[in-house]
Design brief:
single chain; 12 helices; elongated; 3 domains; two-stranded antiparallel ribbon
């Protein structure tokens, strides 16, 4: 194409690396979809939002405990595995009908995206339904639960973790603006908190995908024995292979160069 073997070899190598990078990216997106990586990260983020971090226990012991419980519960009927549940505000949140049925099917039970308004409404619904009396007004019920911290977790009794309770109480104590109810102001604060956290989640998800794609790329290079020196050596000695690869790269660029998704720089 360029009339120079060195430039043709460089173009051929870049085209080969491009093909392998597209393969790694496609496989990574497929794996992320199969294993619900986005939904898992969203769930862990919401659990960090609505539950306090465990104190006094090393992280490794917590993971070991959860792993043993999950392994044991895999082989016994669910009704015998009641201790697997860890009732909390986050657990109750994910078991509310408005969140529980956002998943696609039984395989993808957890949603990969939750609307901010739905998040705030679900939190308020949990607080309202946990009130001691059904006759109380919504704002009175929310205020009562934020003070007591006791919420209704279905068959279980649980309470809001102390740090989360203090934070939610501080949001509730914000003075509403004119022509705005206390509950509307509270929901607005919840939406702002959720949106800020989701921005951090987006960055975290992108970084994890980049790291995973890089690791997958190395694995593909090892499996397919992508040796740059050997490829360059073969292209330098085999004129037919070099010309064929350069023509293939040129035709691919001509057919995809005008594609906006191809020329668009990554976010």
């Amino acid at each position: 194409m360029f009339g120079s073997p060195i430039l043709d070899i460089a173009l051929g190598l870049m085209f080969i690396f491009l093909i392998y990078s597209l393969l790694a990216t496609t496989l990574m997106e497929l794996l992320a979809s199969i294993f619900g990586l986005r939904a898992r990260l969203l769930r862990s983020t919401i659990y960090r939002m609505l539950n306090d971090d465990p104190t006094g226990k090393p992280w490794s012991l917590i993971r070991l405990k959860k792993g043993i419980i999950s392994f044991f519960c895999f082989f016994i009927p669910p009704r015998w595995c009641w201790f697997r549940h860890d009732p909390s505000l986050a657990w109750t949140f994910y078991n509310m009908p408005g969140i529980k049925y956002l998943g696609l099917n039984n395989w993808f039970k957890r949603p990969s995206y939750i609307n901010p308004d739905r998040f705030s409404k679900t939190i308020c619904d949990i607080l309202k339904e946990s009130a001691s009396s059904c006759d109380k007004k919504d704002e009175e019920a929310i205020s009562e639960i934020l003070e007591s911290g006791e919420i209704n977790c279905g068959e279980f009794s649980c309470s809001i973790d102390p740090e989360t309770q203090r934070f939610l109480r501080s949001l509730w104590k914000e003075k509403p603006v004119e022509n705005q109810t206390h509950e509307e102001q509270f929901r607005q604060q919840l939406v702002a908190w959720y949106n800020e956290t989701m921005e951090l989640l987006t960055g975290r998800y992108k970084r994890r995908m980049q790291y995973n794609t890089l690791a997958l790329g190395f694995a593909i290079a090892v499996v397919f024995n992508v040796n740059t020196i050997e490829i360059a050596s073969r292209l330098s000695t085999n004129d037919n292979a070099r010309e064929a690869l350069v023509q293939l790269a040129g035709s691919w660029i001509e057919s995809n160069g005008s594609n906006p998704d191809f020329i668009k720089s990554p976010a």
